[in-house]
Amino acid sequence: MSDLELILKSINPNYEKEYRFNSHRRWKFDFAYPDIAVAFEYEGIFRGKSRHTSVMGYSKDCEKYNHAAVLGWRVIRITAAMLSDTYHKTGKGKIVYDFIRSNTILFIAKVLE
């Protein structure tokens, strides 16, 4: 289980992994709360070369995120650096955790209004 997944599980365990948000495209979110249209994407760009680091890969990611926004999704992007031990030791990890936690709670509260 990834650090991001552990954080999400501690906040609200009702997420879906690899959630396909568009039936016409093969796009999936890493983690999603479909009932409130909130998604979390883990951007592993700091773990070496990947599809996401190429111009074409980055452009396709932008297309995916823009399409998700048009459909009403809120996408929170998290990088490997944000979840690293060094990051946590500087206190920034707590800021990320608090951000994810507070936004998830706010989104849930807003939907339940």
Can you walk me through this structure?
With 113 residues, the protein is of the alpha+beta class. The protein has one domain: Endonuclease, Chain A, CATH 3.40.960. It is 45% helix and 20% strand. It contains 4 helices and 4 strands; from the N terminus they run H-E-E-E-H-E-H-H. It has a 4-stranded mixed β-sheet, with helices on both faces. Helix 2 links the parallel strand 3 and strand 4. The longest helix has 21 residues. The N and C termini lie far apart (32 Å). The mean pLDDT is 78.
| Structural class designation | alpha+beta
- Secondary-structure element order, N to C: HEEEHEHH
**Radius of gyration, Cα only, in angstroms?**
14 Å
Q: What is the molecular shape?
A: globular
Strand content: 15-25%
CATH superfamily: VSR Endonuclease
Regions with little confidence, pLDDT below 50 for 5+ residues: none
- Strands in their spatial order, largest beta sheet: 1-2-3-4
Count of DSSP strands: 4
* Contiguous helical run count: 4
- CATH fold-level label: Endonuclease, Chain A
Number of domains: 1
